[in-house]
Amino acid sequence: MTTTIDSNFAACEALRLLGPDPENWVSDRPGIDHNVTIIGGSGSGSTFVFALRRAGIGDVTEIDAADDEAHAGVWLTRARMRTLRTPKNLPGPELGIPELSFQAWYEARHGAAAYAEIDRIERVTWAEYLSWYRHFLGIQVRYQTKLVRIEPATGFFRLHLEVNGVPKVETTRKIIFANGVAGTGGSYIPPVLADLPRTLYAHTADAIDFEALRGKTVAVLGAAASAFDAAGVALESGAKAVHLFVRRSAIASLSVLRIRDYPGAYDNYPQLPDAARWLQAWRFHQAGTAPPPKSIERAIAFPNFHIHLSAPWKSAQKMGDRIAIQVNNDVFEFDFAIAGTGYFVDPTKRPELADFAQHIALWRDRYEPPEDLRNDGLGMHPYLGSAHEYQEKVPGTAPYLKDIHVFNPAGLVSFGLPVGDIHSIRRDMPAIVSRISHDLFFEDWAHHEARITGDVAPDFENSLYAAAVWKQPIGAATR
């Protein structure tokens, strides 16, 4: 006798016991295609779809410019770490339903003992889990759909899209940006690289052909996790040598975010005064982003890997088909350079925001830090409201900004985390969904008022209980 174990049994039972999704309660509006449009087809976007569905909000669409699921998000594309950097037991896309968690999914396939043995979740395994989550819950992502421009209108937005390369316009009432690290800016390319042809360097956000670096000498600029991961892949791909250059005198090793990663600070952080939030963001920036020890160990395992400390690049010039780089008083030659230099935040540099970026309130518009805490980069972060919504620089000039919610790292200064990571799901996603529900309900209050105060059909007729109604017997004495 063969026993078949359904690895989805517990998840199916959880959904059955949870009950069906509420019906869509949002009233239709003529000419509106979507109540909510989510920009980004990876884990965060799909979790928003599920959360909105459970809140009874229908007509939600999720779009991504990538060709397909395998190319959406970072996990199977530009992410190069072996394991996630976050602890394996953080609350995430399951939204409080344990049977939908990574742990439940993994144990259903590999057993509890196997889960107990892993320290961090393997990157590819996490991508597999997110794919299961998406398909199990029936979440549809519209791939090959690129947002080109957002055009504000009265009470809604016109989204100018390219769908399979063909221009198309759709309308939506709400927008959520769940589009990753470059979602409100872009890859930071240091000016020292600006004059080099792109054939000689790449940013870690780019698709890099590491096999083409076999036998080559490679320079890596930067010392955060993405820089070390790129160095590790280059070495594993057969690079002749990899040199990693660090501006600081030591590699950043202070995890500033970790010391406030407890419920009190995590849950209440958005209510801190501006001065406290700015100070924490400034401290995080000053300390630098510490790479995981495993990322360092991955690279230093190779004898042909070299770290240069206190080594900012003074210049980088094309010399034949190579790069000549001046570092302090030395000159090095490389076949290729990789910039692990992170990302910048600047809404004015996003073409889809061009119609109104000048109206978005930034932190520099709302808070003037002491001179010793100034940081122009942090000042360019949007000053977000409690539900991650854009706010107006000048009240009354762009009231529609409240209908655009930002769930990407541009929320760092406002919310204390690189928003969009697993860490931010438990606290920030419910706040956004709750606000969207609130706005959609009260914007249509006249409709809902009529609905909840209208005539109500009786659940039963009086005849149901008529035979049991007490009747005084004829002639009976009364007292």
- The shape is globular
The residue-averaged pLDDT reads: 95
What portion of the residues fall into strands of 2 or more residues?
A: 15-25%
* Biggest pleated-sheet summary: 7 strands, mixed
Q: How much is the radius of gyration in Å?
A: 27 Å
Number of strands: 17
The termini sit apart by 76 Å
- Return residue spans where pLDDT drops below 50 for at least 5 consecutive residues: none
Number of helices: 14
Helix residue percentage: 25-40%
The class by helix and strand makeup works out as: alpha/beta
Task: Write a structural description.
It is a single chain. The protein has helices at 9-18, 43-54, 102-110, 112-117, 123-136, 225-236, 263-268, 274-287, 293-300, 363-366, 376-379, 412-415, 425-443, 445-453; strands at 34-39, 60-63, 141-142, 145-153, 156-163, 166-177, 185-187, 201-203, 217-221, 241-245, 305-308, 313-319, 322-327, 330-334, 336-339, 343-345, 404-406. The model has no long low-confidence stretch (mean pLDDT 95). By secondary structure, it is an alpha/beta fold. The longest helix is centred in the last third of the chain and has 19 residues, at 425-443. It is globular. It has 14 helices and 17 strands.
